[in-house]
């Protein structure tokens, strides 16, 4: 039975791209699937569809099936999110949410839950005060619907319940790692990378001390023993060696010296990267404070009404944000461009607010206004 040429659906515009002289290709999320369509003539000043098919528009659509792309023939707006258009920061949060949904929802695939979440997210970002908190809630809900929900209550390594103490979070393992397993993985107690003797011994790939002849900045490696046994490398550089001081050693010399395999392990680097134990592979666990763990669990298990009453510190905000964004980038295997832009916008707005606060304080009799501005 042939398909009908026209079909109706409602959808949210996640992304738009100009095409040709007056057309635009739209990525639309519907309750059934995600699809790409073309809106012909929408960039003309006389187009009737332009006001109904902007970015983040929620509209009823009449679509005609096309050879390559389906064509939007009619559009009627259902809901307009005015707060997104009037506030750059709110609009940027919506861009970040739309990029996440676009990356996680495959073409011609989707779900009613994902659609409702995106719709709720646009409502939150156009009205709520604590945008960062609701963004974290959105991220965790999105990960659940996409099948990547992080494990926050059981250690992903030893399968034991997570204790109420500082632990670690591993993006590669998909959730929390208890303090013991995190220590075995070489999780640092601060932001610096740490290389533990236990991790080195278990990995069994890289001896702790470097040979005396080794240098960090690309110097040639040649030990006296290696020179004797290989018997092929005099003090001057061979003809095949690079002019720019790269380390070169012949295969025979490498085999006989038996001290340093040619390729470095994935976890190795010139700046002392961690070496994980075999049980954890190349896992890199990030420290997670007790407060950050509590917030993550609360966001994962509570309703929106309870989330609205939650208040957390700036420090915990920053920590939870980094943990989830690192995890999302690991899942997506790419950097989120809108996340970097969001951080930039937020930083510049804070700088403007701080400068304005200083200016207000310098005006005589303006202490009350300064307190209001700071709040």
Mean residue pLDDT? 77
Q: Strand pairing plus helix content: what structural class?
A: alpha+beta
Element-by-element helix/strand order: EEEEEHHHHEEHHHHEHHHHH
What does the radius of gyration come to?
28 Å
Percent range of helical residues: 40-55%
Instruction: Calculate the terminal CA-CA distance, rounded to whole Å.
Output: 64 Å
Largest sheet: 5 strands, mixed, barrel
Lateral strand order in the biggest sheet: 1-2-3-5-4
Strand tally: 8
Structural topology:
Elements: E1 6-19, E2 23-29, E3 34-39, E4 58-64, E5 70-79, H1 82-86, H2 88-104, H3 112-127, H4 131-146, E6 167-170, E7 175-177, H5 179-184, H6 197-203, H7 224-230, H8 251-257, E8 285-288, H9 290-301, H10 304-307, H11 314-332, H12 337-362, H13 367-374
Parallel strand pairs: 3-5
Antiparallel strand pairs: 1-2, 1-4, 2-3, 4-5, 6-7, 6-8
Helix pairs in contact: 2-3, 2-4, 2-12, 3-4, 4-11, 7-8, 9-11, 12-13
């Amino acid at each position: 039975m042939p398909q009908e040429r026209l079909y109706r659906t409602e959808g949210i515009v996640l992304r738009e791209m100009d095409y040709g002289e007056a057309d635009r290709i739209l990525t639309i999320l519907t309750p059934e699937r995600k699809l790409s369509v073309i809106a012909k003539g929408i960039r003309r000043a006389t187009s009737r569809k332009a006001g109904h098919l902007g970015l983040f528009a929620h509209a009823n659509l009449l679509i005609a099936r096309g050879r390559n792309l389906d064509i939007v023939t009619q559009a009627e707006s259902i809901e307009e999110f005015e707060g997104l258009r009037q506030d750059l920061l709110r609009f940027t949060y919506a861009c970040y949410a739309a990029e996440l949904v676009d990356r996680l929802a495959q073409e011609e695939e989707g779900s009613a839950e994902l659609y409702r979440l995106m719709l709720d997210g646009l409502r939150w970002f156009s009205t709520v005060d604590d945008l960062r908190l609701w963004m974290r809630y959105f991220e965790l809900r999105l990960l659940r619907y996409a099948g990547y929900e992080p494990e926050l209550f059981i250690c992903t390594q030893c399968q034991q319940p997570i204790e109420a103490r500082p632990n670690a979070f591993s993006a590669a393992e998909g959730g929390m790692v208890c303090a013991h397993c995190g220590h075995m993985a070489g999780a640092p107690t601060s932001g610096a990378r740490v290389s533990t003797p236990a991790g080195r011994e278990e990995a069994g790939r890289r001896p702790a001390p470097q040979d005396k002849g080794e240098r960090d900045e690309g110097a040639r490696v040649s030990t006296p023993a290696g020179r004797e046994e290989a018997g092929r490398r005099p003090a001057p550089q061979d003809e095949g060696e690079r002019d720019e001081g790269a380390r070169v050693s012949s295969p025979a010399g490498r085999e006989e010296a038996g001290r340093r395999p040619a390729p470095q392990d994935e976890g190795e680097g010139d700046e002392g990267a961690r070496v994980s134990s075999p049980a954890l592979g190349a896992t890199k666990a990030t420290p997670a404070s007790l407060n950050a763990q509590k917030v993550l669990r609360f966001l994962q298990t509570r309703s929106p009404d309870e989330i609205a009453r939650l208040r957390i510190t700036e420090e915990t905000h920053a920590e939870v944000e980094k943990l989830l964004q690192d995890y999302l980038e690991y899942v997506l295997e790419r950097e989120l461009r809108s996340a970097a832009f969001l951080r930039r916008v937020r930083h510049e707005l804070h700088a403007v607010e701080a400068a304005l606060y200083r200016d207000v304080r310098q005006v005589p009799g303006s202490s009350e206004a300064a307190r209001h501005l700071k709040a």
